[in-house]
Design brief:
Number of helices of chain B: 6
Shape of chain B: globular
Distance between the termini of chain A: 59 Å
Largest sheet of chain B: none
Largest interface: A-B, 85 and 87 residues
Order of helices and strands of chain A: HHHHHHHH
Order of helices and strands of chain B: HHHHHH
Oligomer: heterodimer
Strand content of chain B: under 5%
Chain lengths: 154, 117
């Protein structure tokens, strides 16, 4: 084997040594776990609709229940096992958002309950909220400026 | 229900491909999904996916972004400029508050021996 001299050599070396992640299998697992989580959401949603709640309230309840469940599963160290198996299947649904809040919080528990848990909760979720909310403000302002039929499709 | 399953699964596959094929960290992928959802929501495209797939589109984080954008637009219609700042967070308030509350409680009851996934 030739000696590692450039960055590219090193990258090739890493690529050769690191295990090939079986993308097809990963995608399949992500697909059915993600689909399953969405279906659980749909069941809750249908029940809320059945009880006569409006769409937005039902959606909020679905989010709250799924977030609650995944937060506690993370706390019990069960979510990581699902995450290892399903990859994006458990990360992309709102369950991943809850997991991203709880995992860093648990890790920094030793730094105290205020700055440790309270502060580190948002190491991953913070950027999500920053960009999500900023984007929504931009959308709102753009809508205000171009208040046309094209956008009122929503 | 089947539509919900398939569409939700497909959105997760996109995420999985991003994880496997790029060097993006999960945090960045979450940010990309939320922002994409907000933009698609603002353009009115995402609502069509929601109509088609129900929770298959609202449960993934793109749906969270969509809810933010939709809330902002609705509130702009009601209260003008300030609505852009009120609407998004208002629409997602339940989810955010629940995430903070349950997240904190779950962290408290957990055992601190944790390995990063």
């Amino acid at each position: 084997m030739k000696p590692i001299q450039t960055k590219k050599d090193y990258q090739d070396y890493v690529d050769k040594k690191s295990p090939n992640s079986p993308i097809l299998k990963n995608c399949f697992n992500a697909f059915w776990v993600g689909g399953l989580i969405c279906s659980i959401g749909q069941i809750i949603f249908n029940y809320c609709k059945f009880r006569g709640m409006d769409v937005q309230l039902s959606n909020t309840i679905v989010s709250i229940i799924l977030i609650g469940i995944s937060a506690f599963l993370t706390g019990l160290n069960l979510f990581n096992r699902i995450g290892k198996f399903a990859g994006a299947g458990s990360l992309v649904p709102i369950t991943g958002f809850a997991n991203s809040i709880v995992s860093p919080a648990m890790e920094y528990k030793s730094e105290g309950y205020v700055m440790g848990v309270g502060g580190k909760m948002f190491t991953v979720a913070g950027p999500v909220l920053v960009f999500g909310i900023s984007a929504s403000i931009v959308v709102g302002i753009v809508y205000l400026i171009f208040n046309t039929q094209a956008i009122t499709l929503v | 229900m089947l539509r919900c399953f398939v569409v939700g699964g497909l959105i997760c596959i996109i995420g999985q491909i991003l994880i496997d094929k790029t060097k993006l960290t999960p945090a960045r992928i979450l940010v990309i999904f939320v922002t994409t959802g907000a933009i698609l929501g603002g353009l009115g495209i995402y609502q069509h996916i929601v109509d088609f797939a129900g929770c298959g589109a609202t449960v993934p984080l793109t749906g969270f972004g969509n809810a933010l954008a939709k809330g902002a637009i609705e509130e702009v219609g009601k209260s003008g400029f300030v609505g852009a700042f009120i609407g998004g967070t208002k629409a997602a308030a339940g989810g955010i508050a629940a995430a903070i509350f349950f997240g904190y409680i779950a962290s408290l009851i957990s055992k601190p021996k944790m390995k990063k996934q």
